Amino acid sequence: MSLNAEQVLQSEYLQARAKILELAAILDRIDRAEGAVDAQPQMQLLRKGIDVLNGTEPDKAARVQLLFSRGYDPDWRKTMSV
Amino acid sequence: MDFVDPHIHMVSRTTDDYETLAKMGCVALSEPAFWAGFDRGSVESFRDYFRQLTEYEPRRAAQYGIQHFTWLCINAKEAENVSLSREVIAMIPEFLDKPNVLGIGEIGLNKNTRNEATIFLEHVDLAVRHGQQILIHTPHLEDKYQGTRMILDMLLGDSRVDPNRVLVDHVEEHTIGLVLEKGFWAGMTLYPVTKCTPQRAADMIEKYGSERLMHNWPAIRPSKPTGPCRT
Fold first, then answer.
1. Model ipTM?
2. Would the CB atoms of B172 and A65 count as touching at under 8 Å?
3. Chain A partners of B144 at a C-beta cutoff of 8 Å?
C-alpha cells in the first residue's frame, strides 16, 4: 500500500535534510575558495536547479533533468545530413 | 529471490563476482558488447572480444549456475572510426547463431554526432535484416535527453523496427515517458551519481508501472556487483 504524504515526509525527512546540508556545504566551499564563479554557466545552472526545488510545480526531478540537458533540434537529421 | 540482470559487463568483473551474484540469487544475465576503456585497433580485436562473449564468459558463468547471454556491436564511443565500425558490422553475422546471442547491442549515441548516428542506423539495419532484437545505450548526463530523442527519431523512422523487440536503456525521469509511450522497453541503470539511484528507480516504477520496464546494474563503475538485488 502506498504511503500518504505525511508518512513519506516522516520517512524521508532526515535524508532530505542531509542532502540540503550537503548542498549548502558545497556552496560554502565554493564561497570560501579564491575567485568568483557567479558568471560560470555551471553555477547559474545550480542556482536554477535550486529554484526548481523551491517551486510548487510537480515533476521536479524531470524538470531538473531537463534544466541540465542539451537542447533537442527536431530537424537534426536535416542539419547533420543523416 | 531469483533475479536476472539484463545489462551487466562481466568481462570487467572477477570470478568472485559471479559467485557473489549466484549467492544473491542471480540465475541469468545478459552482457552487451561495450567499449574496452580504450579504442580497439582492428576488426580482429572485436572478433576476439565476441569470442570471449560467446564462448568463454558463458563457461565462466555456468560454473556458478548462471546462464550468460550477450549482445554484439561496436560501441558508439568507437563510431567516429566509421571504416572500422563498418568492418565490425560486416563481421558480426559470424556470431549471430551462437546460442547465447540475444541481438545487437548496446548500440546508441555517446556525444550525439553525425558519425555516431550513421553507425547507429547501420546497426539497426543489421538487426532488422537478421531478425535480431536491439539493446540501446542512451548518452550520459547533459547529452541524454537530446540523444534519446535522436535515437527515437531514428527508430521510429524505420518502419521495419518492432518497438516490442527494442530495449532503450539508461532512462531517467526526463526520458522514460518518451520511450514507453512509443511502445519500446525501457531500462533503468543504477549508478547513483551519473544515472539513477535505487530510490529514484522505485519512484519511476511507481509513476509509470512495471510493464516493459527493467532495471540493471552494468558493473563498470566502482561498486558491488549486486545492485539490482539490493534495490
1. 0.91
2. yes
3. 65, 69
